[in-house]
Design a protein that fits this description.
It is a single chain. By secondary structure, this protein is α+β, with helices and mostly antiparallel strands. The chain has a single domain (9-357), classed as FAD/NAD(P)-binding domain, CATH 3.50.50.60. The chain is 33% helix and 29% strand. It contains 12 helices and 20 strands. The protein has helices spanning 19-30, 63-71, 106-109, 120-134, 178-182, 239-246, 250-260, 309-325, 336-364, 377-380, 383-391, 394-404, and strands spanning 9-15, 35-39, 58-61, 84-86, 88-92, 102-105, 115-119, 137-140, 143-147, 154-158, 163-171, 187-203, 210-216, 219-226, 230-238, 268-270, 275-284, 288-289, 292-294, 300-301. The strands form 3 sheets. Strands 5, 6, 12, 13, 14, 15, 16, 17 and 20 form a 9-stranded mixed β-sheet that branches. Strands 1, 2, 8, 9, 10, 11, 18 and 19 form an 8-stranded mixed β-sheet that branches. Strand 9 and strand 10 form a beta hairpin. Helix 1 (19-30) packs parallel to helix 4 (120-134), helix 1 (19-30) runs parallel beside helix 8 (309-325) and helix 8 (309-325) packs antiparallel against helix 9 (336-364). The two termini are 31 Å apart.
């Protein structure tokens, strides 16, 4: 995938080859830096999905995330036939018939789309081709040590014995970030009493580029549009229910999803096996150190109910690239004072999203009510009233859309 080289000195090293890490390496290379991307042995590239083969891992990319990919000249390289825009979103505080609907509309908010649904394989394929053109070097080995006090740069040691030097190290190595651990940056972690069940379905009714979401004792069910008459689901289900759903045969799972969604997309047919993922909240003590900046899941993990995890990562990347590009001529890209500008700029957006997603999860989780802050407990019985109040305010809905679009 990448050109291998014996070069051991770089302007920047990116640890982690997920979407945010790949985009970080690409952005830094486009700034004129010599960049390497470091991660354990890369998996064999999967063939591009075709026909009715769909990647069960999809992302709802916000306008802000799409703008980052356009800036990197990646968006236009993606397979447009595999991308679905979201023009409308309908959210319900309960799966019962007659529950109030909260409707978000791109047209009313004067935006091109609320989001775009993109498969992970499509995104990674576009980023991989761009990395090759940009001359980013790949190092397929885990890191085992990092020394940020080396004169003139940081030194990263790989499991195979190679030592790499760089002025700036970007940690994009996920929620369990080995780089973060090696640096001694503490992180508090709390597991949610839920697991995410993801799967793709063919539908007998058109989705009309609309996404749906239902809250309730079942957890949170999101149905996202895919191109054609297809949809992807993310069901954040309580642990016992998630275990049950994971063991259902294809027809029974399709029926369960159809019943909960009141058949809004008609009869469903499973086209990818269901997969499950644990859900957790991770808060990091700090996201920068001398010559090091953490981005994406290495810097924060939030509940996926708003689909904002990837968007937060691309938001990190945009601010970091702007910070590095806009530095004073005399300032090193790994200067701690410079990196703290990035950290300060991301503190409020990340904290706001973390509080919003965690608060909503607790508000709608029947087992969390006793643990809710005292000020939030009265809201449990007034959820539907709040839904109606938001729905009645065009200004408030536009503000919510504007915040989610960043």
């Amino acid at each position: 995938m990448y050109e291998l080289s014996a070069v051991s000195s770089f302007d920047a090293l990116v640890i982690g080859r997920g979407a945010v890490g790949a985009a970080a390496a690409l952005g830094l290379a486009q700034c004129g830096m010599r960049v390497a991307i470091v991660a354990p042995v890369a998996p064999e590239p999967r063939p591009a999905p075709g026909g009715d083969a769909w990647d069960p891992r999809v992302f709802a990319l916000s306008p802000g995330s799409r703008a980052v990919l356009q800036q990197l000249r990646v968006w236009e390289a993606l397979d447009a036939t595999r991308i679905a825009p979201v023009y409308d979103m309908r959210v319900y505080p309960s799966p019962r018939e007659g529950a109030p609907e909260l409707h978000f509309c791109a047209y009313e908010a004067c935006v091109e789309a609320l989001a775009w649904i993109v498969e992970n394989d499509n995104l990674m394929s576009g980023l991989g081709r761009a990395l090759g053109f940009a001359g980013v070097i790949g190092m397929d080995a885990p890191l085992v040590a990092v020394d940020t006090e080396t004169h003139g740069g940081a030194t990263v040691t790989l499991e195979d014995g190679r030592a790499l030097r760089a002025k700036l190290v970007i940690g994009a190595d996920g929620a369990r970030s080995p780089l973060r651990a090696l640096l001694g940056i503490s992180a508090s972690e709390r597991d949610y009493p839920q697991r995410a069940v993801v799967a793709n379905f063919a539908t007998s009714k058109p989705h009309r580029d609309c996404a749906y979401q239902w809250f309730g004792e079942h957890g949170i069910l999101a149905m996202l549009p895919l191109p054609g008459d297809r949809c992807s689901i993310v069901w954040s289900a309580p642990l016992p229910l998630a275990e049950t759903l994971a063991q259902l045969d294809a027809e029974t799972l399709a029926r369960r999803v159809g019943d909960l969604s009141h058949g809004v997309l008609g009869d469903l047919r499973l086209i990818t096996p269901a997969q499950t993922f644990p859900l957790r909240l991770i808060e990091v003590e700090r996201c920068v150190a001398h010559r090091v900046a953490l981005v994406g899941d290495a810097a924060h993990v939030v509940h996926p109910l708003a689909g904002q995890g990837m968007n937060l990562g691309f938001g990190d990347l945009q601010v970091l690239l702007d910070t590095v590009r806009g530095r004073e001529p005399f300032r090193d890209p790994g200067d701690l004072m410079l990196l703290r500008r990035y950290e300060r700029a991301r503190r409020e957006p990340v904290a706001t999203m973390r509080m919003a997603t965690d608060g909503l999860q607790r508000l709608f989780d029947p087992g969390s009510a006793p643990a809710l802050p005292a000020l939030m407990r009265p809201l449990v019985g007034a959820r539907e009233i709040g839904w109606r109040l938001i729905e009645s305010s065009s200004w408030l809905k536009r503000r919510l859309i504007a915040h989610a679009a960043l």
